[in-house]
Specification:
It contains 8 helices and 2 strands. It has 219 residues and is an all-alpha fold. 61% of the residues lie in helices and 3% in strands. Helix 3 packs across helix 4.
Length: 219
């Protein structure tokens, strides 16, 4: 069948379309083992703390312990990706329902600012940098003190749900959502002052061994 034929068929048989969508969602949800995710995160946090304690006292960290952390982090990222895909489908369906609702209006996805400067942290109603920093640390602690940039961004939006405002969701001159850009600038600052490690692999953010002391000094 051609694509248009498939679309015509599904449009004429919405019950079949809903059944297919339901099966996809059920399959995605079954891939998310919440119990395993919680247990892995707890273990990852404890191992990360143990490694930090060893490093802070000058004791060599066994390769086995580092390898176990890497394995748990990889497994956590896989679980997070499954959950992200599931939430992406749910959110996408909600957006489509809002967009095509009869007598409804599409939800704005962000508007381009009339002007944009090069300052890493703009003034005005944007969420302050220190607020972003504290949220980033909170998210990374939940992830075992390290994680991939994309996953951290995804979790940040939930943590900052009651904080981010309309200006944070505006698009900058590059077409990027402003608060995403601001979070990346905050990450660079955190690496400069030592809250984050500055030698992490590309795309990976890692808290330093003395990040808690530096956070206490953050004003």
């Amino acid at each position: 069948m051609e694509k248009n034929d498939v679309l015509d068929f599904l449009a004429s048989n919405p019950d079949i379309l809903l059944e297919i969508v339901g099966e996809i969602l059920e399959k995605c949800r079954n891939n998310i083992d919440q119990t395993s995710i919680v247990q892995s995160k707890k273990q990852l946090i404890e191992i990360s703390k143990t490694i930090d304690r060893l490093e802070s006292t000058g004791i060599t960290v066994p390769d086995e312990l580092r390898n176990l952390k890497s394995s748990l982090l990889a497994a956590s990222n896989d679980n997070n990706q499954d959950q992200t895909r599931y939430e992406m489908i749910i959110n996408g369906l909600n957006d489509l329902c809002s967009k095509y609702k009869l007598n409804g209006h599409p939800k704005p996805r962000g508007r381009k600012r009339s002007s944009d400067n090069d300052s890493p942290v703009r003034h005005g109603r944007l969420t302050p940098r220190n607020t972003l920093i504290r949220a980033i640390v909170q998210v990374m602690e939940q992830m075992g003190n390290s994680g991939q940039k994309r996953e951290i961004h995804n979790r940040l939006e939930d943590v900052l749900a009651g904080v981010l405002n309309s200006e944070d969701y505006e698009l900058d001159s590059s077409g990027q959502v402003t608060w995403h850009h601001q979070a990346d600038w905050a990450r660079m600052y955190m690496a400069q002052v030592g809250i984050l490690k500055n030698d992490s692999p590309r795309g990976i953010w890692e808290l330093s061994t003395n990040y808690q002391k530096l956070m206490d000094e953050l004003k």
